[in-house]
Amino acid sequence: MSNNLPKVAWIGLGIMGSPMSENLIKAGYSVTGYTLEQDKIDRLVAAGGTGASSIADAVGDADVVITMVPASPQVEAIAYGPDGILENAKRGALLVDMSSITPQTSVDLAKNAAEKGIRVLDAPVSGGEAGAIEAVLSIMVGGEQADFDAAKPLLDALGKTIVLCGPHGSGQTVKAANQLIVAVNIQACAEAVVFLEKSGVDLTAALDVLNGGLAGSTVLTRKKDNFLKRDFAPGFRIDLHHKDMGIVTDAARNVGAALPVGGVVAQLVASLRAQGDGGLDHSALLRSVERLSGSQV
């Protein structure tokens, strides 16, 4: 363990947080983790990290605190209050929130943290579970240049494309745009799959040739097998994409941007969730198209 690397506290060890924190350990960082499920803390310890009994216990000694939780309410729950990060982290610590939340929540967090002498970056990610495991995430960051520069070596251990997008909240805004593009892309692929199958075409061959042309995409590459096998084990749950579509439609409305197709896909995601598919991978948008096309799903 190299002693000159910053000490890291990691809060939130879910589908993304676990492999990401393990990549930091592999890169030589000392990582102390806390999350709600003990078995996830045990996994971190098995990977060479240290378990903490509370948020306060995890962050007290940390130079950098990284958070990766589901949504704005969870970020607020772990950041604020007597047991939260802001009350228990040391002055000068850098808080890097990698959750996907509303831009406004990130702006407010940075402002409140500054009063405690704590620097903040919003640094949401794209690339899903596979990107987290392979350390090839795209990381969009909002905050100060100096803080970004300080965090960059650490972020390099987690992702491949790491970009400062502007002031606090900008990372979240870019992430919202990312989720808009991904959802619309999955929906288009799902519609193509149903159309191809109903037409009696060899689906594997069709998706291969489509992915080699202008219709090709990272979404199609990553989700092709999900479509072919109807395997919707979650890499990224519909429930979370539903939350993200709420963020992007709300934020777009606030700035006066029209998202006509995004609005439709947001409703399709909402309907999938209402039909009990919220725990499935977002590639399960295919199920919605199948139902609309008369298939019993």
Automatic annotation (TrEMBL):
<dbReference type="Pfam" id="PF14833">
    <property type="entry name" value="NAD_binding_11"/>
</dbReference>
<dbReference type="InterPro" id="IPR029154">
    <property type="entry name" value="HIBADH-like_NADP-bd"/>
</dbReference>
<dbReference type="InterPro" id="IPR006398">
    <property type="entry name" value="Tartro_sem_red"/>
</dbReference>
<dbReference type="InterPro" id="IPR008927">
    <property type="entry name" value="6-PGluconate_DH-like_C_sf"/>
</dbReference>
<feature type="domain" description="6-phosphogluconate dehydrogenase NADP-binding">
    <location>
        <begin position="7"/>
        <end position="166"/>
    </location>
</feature>
<dbReference type="Pfam" id="PF03446">
    <property type="entry name" value="NAD_binding_2"/>
</dbReference>
<protein>
    <submittedName>
        <fullName>2-hydroxy-3-oxopropionate reductase</fullName>
        <ecNumber>1.1.1.60</ecNumber>
    </submittedName>
</protein>
<comment type="similarity">
    <text>Belongs to the HIBADH-related family.</text>
</comment>
<dbReference type="InterPro" id="IPR015815">
    <property type="entry name" value="HIBADH-related"/>
</dbReference>
<keyword id="KW-0520">NAD</keyword>
<dbReference type="GO" id="GO:0008679">
    <property type="term" value="F:2-hydroxy-3-oxopropionate reductase activity"/>
</dbReference>
<keyword id="KW-0560">Oxidoreductase</keyword>
<feature type="domain" description="3-hydroxyisobutyrate dehydrogenase-like NAD-binding">
    <location>
        <begin position="169"/>
        <end position="287"/>
    </location>
</feature>
<dbReference type="InterPro" id="IPR013328">
    <property type="entry name" value="6PGD_dom2"/>
</dbReference>
<dbReference type="InterPro" id="IPR036291">
    <property type="entry name" value="NAD(P)-bd_dom_sf"/>
</dbReference>
<dbReference type="InterPro" id="IPR006115">
    <property type="entry name" value="6PGDH_NADP-bd"/>
</dbReference>
